[in-house]
Amino acid sequence: MAERAQPITALHVAGGAVAGLVALIMLGPLLAVALAGEGAGGVRPSDWAAIRFTVLQALLSALISTALAIPVARALARRSFAGRHVLITLMGAPFLLPVIVAVFGLLVVFGRSGWVSHGLGLVGLPPLDIYGVHGVVLAHVFFNLPLAVRLFLHGWQEIPGERMRLATALGFGLGDMRRHFEWPMLRRTAPGTVLVIFLICTTSFAVALILGGGPYATTVELAIYQAFRFDFDLSRAAQLGAIQVAICALATLAAGALVIRVPLGQGLDRPPVPWQAAQGPLTRASDAAALTATVLFLLLPLLALVGKGLPALWGLPESVWWAALRSLTLALCSTSLALAMALPMAALMARWPWPGLELTGMLSIAISPLVLGTGAFLILRPVANPVALALPITAVVNALMSLPFLLRILAPAYDQAERTQGRLADALGLRGAARLCHVILPRLSRQLGFGAGVAAALSMGDLGVIALFSSPAQGTLPLEMYRLMGSYRTDDAGGAALLLLVLSLVVFRVFDRGGARHAVA
Amino acid sequence: MLSLEHVMLRNGAFTLSVDLTLQKGQRLGLIGASGSGKSTLLNLVAGFLVPDTGRILIDGSDVSRTDVASRPLGILFQDGNLFPHLSAFDNVALGLRPDLRLSESQREAVTACLDQVGMAAHADRLPKVLSGGQQSRVALARMLLRDKPLALLDEPFSALDPGLRRDMLGLVSDLCDQARLTLILVTHDLREVQNLCTDLCLLDKGQVTIRGEMQTILSDPPAALRPWL
C-alpha cells in the first residue's frame, strides 16, 4: 500500500538524534567497562558468593511475593468493600517510594529495636535479626508483593464478566472456580510474575547496601559498589559490571515486556467479579485476613516512619536541607531531560514504529546505573574529575533510567493523538510548533504530567550512581539519609526519611495534577 | 475540476481501481458497502494516500504527490473535526493561520463564517459544551473560511440524529450553492445523497459499478442500487 504523504518533521529528526545519543551514552560506558574488565583475571570466590547470594535472595523474594499475592489478588478480585479503590491505589505506591525510605520504615518495625522485636521481648523471645538474607528478602517482598498483586488482579480482570456470571448460573463451587478460572489464570500469569520479580531483585542495590553486606549477603550490584568505593579496584568493578550486564540483559526481556505495562494502580479498580460460591463466612474471613495482613504489612512501615520522623523533622541538620534542595534540583533537571528525550522519541515511534527504537529506549533497564556510573567514571577520568561531575552524571543517568517508563506512557498516547487528529492537522497544514501546540500537547498533557511525576519521584529517591562517586558536599537527600543511618543518628535519619517521602510524593503529585488540569479529554 | 485517471491502489488483497471525473459545481454522492473503497478513494483525493499508479488532477494540475495541506480542498471528517482545547472561534481561525495571530480583517472573516453557519453567538465556547450539530457547524465554518473549491465530506453527519442531519445537509447545500463548491460526500445513506448531491457513484470491491446523474439513475434504479433504496 502506498505510504501516507506525511512529512518528516524536525521533531522526528530530533527523535532520531535522541535515540542515537541514548544508544551512545548507554553503550559507551558499557564498552569502557568491558575493556577495563578484561585484565581483571578470573572470577574470585567472593564474586561467586555474590552471584550465589544474588540468585538466592532473588529466588526467595520472587517465590514468597508471588505466593502471598495470590490470596490478596483473589480477595480484591471478588470482594467489594469501602476503601477497595484506596487499597488498589496503595498497591501502586511502592513504585514511587524511595527504597531507602521503605527500608528505614521496615527497620523501625522489624529491626532489632523495632516494634516486633519489642513485642517479642515482652513474651521473653529474642529480637528479630533483619540484617542478611531475611532482611533483604523482607524488603523485596515489601516492594514486590504489590506488583505481584497488580499482575494477578490484572489477570483476574481479563476474565470476561459474562463467563463469571455463567459460572454463577451453573452453580460453580469454590473448587470449580479455582479449577476453571483461577488455575488457568495463574498458569498464564504466575511464571511471568515470578520471573519478573526474580530479575528485579537481582539488580537490587539500595536494599542490599543497607540490609545486606558482608561475605554472605552481598549482591553483584553491591560488590561493584564495594570494589569501586572501598577498594578502588576499577578492573574488578568492571568485571563485576560485565556479570551484572549479563544478569540485567535477562531483566530487559521480562521487565520490559511485563512490569512497566502494568498500570500503576490505574484501571485496576473495575467492579469486582461476582463469586457466588465465596459468600460463606470462612471464605469471607480468609479474604479479610489476607487483605488486613497486606494492609498492615504495607502501611505499618510507613506509619512507623512518620512516627519516628515527625519529631525530628524540625531539628534536622542543615546538611539535610541542602541535600533536599540538591535532590529537588536534580529531580527537576533529570525530569526535564527525560521529557526532552522521550517526546521526540515518542513522535518518531508514532511515525516509524520500528522495534529497534523502543529497544533503544529500554536499554537503561538492561544496563544498571552502577555499571553506567562505573563506565562514565572510566571514560571521564582521563579528561576531567568525575567526582566534580557527580551531580550532572546522576541527572543524566536518572533521566535515562526513567526513559523506558516515559516512553511506555507517552508513545501510545502520541500515536493515539496522531490517529485522532493527525489527518485534520495535515489537512490544515499544521506542522512544527503549531502541530505540537494544537494536536500533541493538549492530548498528551495527562500522560506528560504522570510521566514527569514518575520520573521526578524516581530521581528523588535514587540511591545508585550518586553513591558511587559523590563527595560529601554533593550528597543528595537519599545519600545524606544513608550517611545518617551509617553514623547511627537514627532520629535524624527518620526525619530525613520523612522529608524524602513527602518530597517524592509532592513532586509526583504536582506534576501529575498539573498534567491532569491541562488535559482536554 | 477533478479527474482521477487510471488511479489504482493495492492494499493486500484489496485493489481500488477508479477513473472518475467531476465538473465544477457537481456534487457527487459516493456510496457502497463497508470495505468497498469509499474512504480509500476519498483519502486518495485528499492526499492521505498516494496511488500506486494513475494521476489525480485538480483544475488540470497533477496533485497525485502533493501533500494534503497544499491541495485546493477542504475536508470534514466523521469525527475529531475540532481541537478540544480551542474555542469555536479559534478552531475556525486555525484554518487561516496555524499560529492564530490574526489581523483585524481575518478576525472579521472568521466571525462572518461563524455567522454564516449560525454559530457567531457561540464563538467563545469550547467544543465540549457544544452539541454535535453545533460542532459540525463550526467545522463547516472553517471549511468555508479556507475557501477551497473542492469539499470532501467523509460521513460527517453520521453521528447526528435524523433531524439535525437533515438541517446540516440543507445548510451544506445552501453553502455549496453560494460558493459554487464541488463536493464529494461519502455516506452509507442514499437519502443524504438525494438531499445534497447532483451525481451518484456506487463502489463495489474497489470498482465503480454505477456512475451518473442522480435523477436519471433514480428514475430507473439498476439492480445493484436496489439494496440502498
Low-confidence stretches of chain A: 259-266
User: How do the SSEs of chain A run, as a string of H and E?
Assistant: HHHHHHHHHHHHHHHHHHHH
Shape of chain A: globular
- Radius of gyration of chain A equals 24 Å
In total, how many beta strands of chain B? 10
The number of E-state strands of chain A comes to 0
What CATH architecture label of chain A applies? Orthogonal Bundle
Alpha plus pi helix count of chain B: 7
Q: Could you tell me the strand content of chain B as a percent range?
A: 25-35%
- Report the biggest beta sheet of chain B as strand number plus sense, adding barrel if it closes: 6 strands, mixed
Please characterize this protein's 3D structure.
The complex is a heterodimer of chains A (521) and B (229). With 521 residues, chain A is mainly alpha-helical. Chain A has one domain: MetI-like fold. In chain A, helix 2 packs antiparallel against helix 8, helix 13 crosses helix 17 and helix 19 runs antiparallel to helix 20. Chain A starts with 9 loop residues before the first helix and ends with a helix. About 2% of the residues of chain A have low confidence. With 229 residues, chain B is of the alpha/beta class. Chain B has a domain of 64 residues. Helices cover 32% and strands 26% of the residues of chain B. Chain B is built from 7 helices and 10 strands. Chain B has a 6-stranded mixed sheet with strand order 6-7-8-3-9-10, with helices on both faces. In chain B, a hairpin with a 2-residue loop joins strand 4 and strand 5. In chain B, helix 4 packs parallel to helix 5. The longest helix of chain B has 18 residues. Chain B is globular. The mean pLDDT of chain B is 88. Chains A and B meet through helix 16 and helix 17 of A and strand 1 of B.
